[in-house]
Amino acid sequence: MTNSLMRVNASIFAEFHILGLTDLPNLKLFLFFTLLVIYVMTLTGNIAIILVSQLDKRLHKPMYFFLSNLSSLDICYTSTTMPKMLQILLVKKKSISFIGCVIQLYFLLAFVGTECVLLLVMSYDRFIAICHPLRYPILMSRMVYVNLACVSWSIGLVNSIVHTVFTFRLDFCGIRKINYFFCDIPPLLSLSCEDTTVNEILLLSIGVFIGWTPFVGIVVSYIFIIVTIMYIKSNEGRQKAFSTCASHLTVVLLYYGSAIFNYVRPISFYSLGKDRLITVLYSVVTPMMNPIIYTLKNHEVKNAIHRQFIYRRKNNIFLAI
């Protein structure tokens, strides 16, 4: 018992050294400004989606409630990793405290897991809207869609607790150098001098539950959606139905393609150096692309942004004159 307590105390005051994205001095400054621009664009785009969904009464629908949740998740998990990634590119001491690493891993996994389930919920919403339009107000009432969002967040938080506890119960020996740019499960497991079989089983099994199961559910939903759309007689009706689904389907392919690759496979298949590009895709690029995809593909969102920001600003300028 005493040895365990001593080991825990030693771990708490220890640090992890993060190698970061690159060691090349000339590339560091370029990456810093590139990531900073992406981070600002991510925050601006997702905050705009949240604001317009709240301000415009025409968007007070389940679809845009879920979209606001998605934007909140993108803001949260980029803010969990990006500030530290930017800091590491500028400072000489590339490290993160043990507690800081625990907190970063917990919130990263919570937001990633929540987004996986939320994307399934969003596909269910589109399935009901297109395949059962007359029953939509009942099947997707306010109580139902709020509860679905709460379930998504709860699953993500529980998933994160399990992985965080089992990851940091391990003993990390030797020089704690994380060959990555933030604290994540695969690089942390590679630092442990203990048997990580239990962690690998948990990563695969829970990953299948939160990763592959929602993805299969989304695919099945869209099979029914596509079949239903093909039976719509008018071209205008088909185009409208496709436009409401195209943005969500694009986000699903971008997010799941990279996230499942990163987590739902055996640890022996990981190559931390080669996997960096995939990690950058789902943790940096996808959150920035989501608002752009939904704005470009969705006429309701574009019109709402025009009404709330552009048209209102023109009216304010006219009144000031």
Structure description:
- Helix 4 runs antiparallel to helix 6 and helix 4 runs parallel beside helix 8.
- 35% of the residues are buried.
- It is globular and about 65 Å long.
- The protein has a single domain, classed as Rhodopsin 7-helix transmembrane proteins (Rhopdopsin 7-helix transmembrane proteins), CATH 1.20.1070.
- The protein has a 3-stranded mixed beta sheet with strand order 2-1-3.
- With 321 residues, the chain is an all-alpha fold.
- It has 11 helices and 3 strands; from the N terminus they run αβααβαααβααααα.
- The N terminus is likely disordered.
List keywords for this structure.
mainly alpha; three-stranded mixed sheet; 321 residues; Rhopdopsin 7-helix transmembrane proteins
Task: Please describe the topology of this protein.
Blueprint: H1 2-12, E1 15-18, H2 25-55, H3 62-90, E2 95-97, H4 98-131, H5 136-139, H6 142-168, E3 177-178, H7 185-189, H8 197-230, H9 235-263, H10 276-297, H11 299-320
Parallel strand pairs: 1-3
Antiparallel strand pairs: 1-2
Helix pairs in contact: 2-3, 2-10, 2-11, 3-4, 3-6, 3-10, 4-6, 4-8, 4-9, 6-8, 8-9, 9-10
Task: Provide a concise account of the structure shown.
With 321 residues, the chain is mainly alpha-helical. The protein has helices at 2-12, 25-55, 62-90, 98-131, 136-139, 142-168, 185-189, 197-230, 235-263, 276-297, 299-320, and strands spanning 15-18, 95-97, 177-178. It has a three-stranded mixed beta sheet.
